[in-house]
Amino acid sequence: MAPKTTNLAIVFADISGSTKLYETLGDQVARSKVAETLETIANVVKAHNGTVIKTIGDEVMCTFPTAEEAAKACCEMHESLDEVNSNIKEGTVIAIRVGMHYGPAILEGGDVFGDAVNLAARMAAQAKANQIITTFSTVEILSPLLRASTRFIDHAPIKGKHEEIDIYEIIWQEEDVTRMATGMLDVKKTPEVRLRLKYDNLDIIVNKQRPSVVMGRSKDCDLPVNEKMASRQHVRIELRRDKFFIIDQSTNGTHVRIENGDDAYLRREEMHIIGNGQISLGKGFNENPTEIVRFVQETS
Known about the structure:
Layout: E1 4-16, H1 18-25, H2 27-47, E2 51-56, E3 59-64, H3 67-85, E4 95-108, E5 111-113, H4 115-126, E6 132-135, H5 136-140, H6 144-147, E7 150-156, E8 165-170, H7 174-184, E9 193-199, E10 202-206, E11 212-216, E12 223-224, E13 235-240, E14 243-248, E15 254-258, E16 263-266, E17 270-273, E18 276-281, E19 292-299
Parallel strand pairs: 4-6, 11-12
Antiparallel strand pairs: 1-3, 1-4, 2-3, 4-5, 6-8, 7-8, 9-10, 9-19, 11-13, 13-14, 14-17, 15-16, 15-18, 18-19
């Protein structure tokens, strides 16, 4: 039979921290609880007109005819874990992280392929325990009631795509939905944050319009730095959820000095930066580096 392409909601539901579960409960009990959790998820899928495509380790992949049915099932998956956790060792909680996306998918041999599957898997990777993460295009086609229970999370770069996509969280816990609804009565504009980078005669802004900047010795960098100790693409600064992070990807490391704070050294690590400070690529501040990048955090 020839492959069939159709619009589907693709969902990945993954047990969060299953390795720790085995360490805490022991192999036999943990294996039993994982099996119970996967069976519970499968029952929820069937109850909402969905189809379990396959189980991959501690993860279930499933499809639904509509985004609405998928979103309701995702919420119930989380809620159904109360029973799974009711007779479990105190201090141990089983939680799942869920990602979903609605779009064209290829059905072949009982499996599902295509861009929608890849996006749904990426959303699951973005999710944390007790979260449901989806795309803006999926949120747009939900009913007004479900759309009211969503919130913007972040802009995410997607492999193979030129543009970032907006990702959203579907709020399934009643108290969070209530808090959101109350907050909507008095909506205040959140100040926009930006990080100004200054080096030589260059002045670059990191903000929502430009959420990532690469610095290094290469002239192809967003901010080329004339430092012999620097790698070609030495360090990256990213804006995530209104916070700035510096991510070292170099050989010799990155030195960060926060104004009125301590110095930090990063090597293949990342760090949240706030306020004003200085960045030195490859050279410690005790070596009196001359090629310093200064940063200033601003709001508007």
